[in-house]
Every structure is written in C-alpha cells, then in structure tokens.
Amino acid sequence: MYFRLDAAVRRVVVTAAIFAAGAACPPAYLAHARELSLTIGDLRTAAFSARSLTAQLSGPGFRELSLNIDRVTIAGRDWRKVRVTCADFQTAGERIACSRGVFQLGDKIPASFSYSTTERADFVVDLKPTPDETWRIAGRVAGPQTAIQVKLDRARLSRLASWLPIAAPQLSAGRATGTIDMQVPAVKARLQLDDIAFADTSGLHAGEKIGGMLDVDAAQKGQDWQWNATVAWRTGEVF
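Request: output the structure for the sequence above.
Response:
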C-alpha cells in the first residue's frame, strides 16, 4: 500500500491504526485481542519520507507502541531500520503523546513526544541521548508549509556526521549548541561549536580543541541538495 501525504498528514499513523482496528473488529474481539498490527507501507511529505512502515499496539489498553520503519529520509539523508517504542502511548482528546519512549537509530535514545491531530498538526519530540545532551525537534506538518526546528544543547557532533558532505572533514569529537531550521526546500543552521577534533579525508590536515560558530545554508534543487557553510574559528589548533 502506498500513500502520498501532504495535507493528509493530519493524523499520526498509529492513531489511524487504532481507529481502523476499532472499526473493523467487533468489540468482543478487541476485548480479548492482545495485539493490533497495521502495515502502512510508504509515507511521503514535503519534509521527509518513510518506507515500509509498520505499527503494533499491545499491552493493557493497547498503550504499548512499536513502530518500525525500514528507511527514513530527511533532506537527502537516510536512516535505516529505525524503531520507535513507547511504554505509555496516549490518545487523549486532540493530542497523542508518549512520555516514556525510545528511538532506536543505532543507539537507543530515551525520548518523549506529542502530536496534535487537529488541522494545526504541530508536534514536539524531546531526545536525551546522554544526561548532558538534549535535542528538541518541534514544528508543524502542513504540506508545502511544513516547518521544523531542531534545538541542540551540547549535542555530540558525531551524531551529525551523516549530514555532512562526503568530502567534508571527519569529526571525531565536539559539541554543538544552537538551532537547525528546515522549511522545504531549505535548511538553515547556526551552531556554536566546542572542543572539536577532526581530520580530512586525505589525512594531511587535522584539528583539535576547536571552538567557533558554524552557519549552514542548504537548498534543494530537483532531487539534489546544495550545501554552503561558513565557519568562524575562535579557539583551537589546526595542523
């Protein structure tokens, strides 16, 4: 099954699974069911796409969520075998929420999230990869007007490495604090960088304990993304 979503992303797929299952299954069956499953297939919006998506609800009151995605693509970058779980999935009123979730993107990252099922379709996701590191992703899903902001507080730069061009220096250490704004077809970022260590692909240049400001401006041209970046170094050494 394939869906192309723009304004249609007004409901999270798991909420749809609950409603669809409730409509299709007799109450007596639901009373004894231990798990509800839904295969969504592919989802696509102006901001991201997800392929081969499946959802399961289980546990008392179907409040345990498991969401599996074969591939997620954002701004031309891919993540494979993404999994989201939640131990207290809630669908109260016009909002769905989870305060005890885990995002599995290679590492297991504690998370909480909420999503509005109204026309506004706004969402907030808080990630805490380590005790001293915070990511907040918030925005609105509204077709071509989709806007997303990522706020970073001492985020490990190694987690951003997959967003860098292939020819960019390889980061081995460093932290970032600042914002990344995505409003298709553009991405803008302004980040304060601290304690960076890197080496270029040739092995001829390297740096350590570098601090400064990074400004990034990217735009989508057809199927490709064009990236421009400027860096103002304040501290550190480059060899």
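The chain is about 10% helix and 60% strand.
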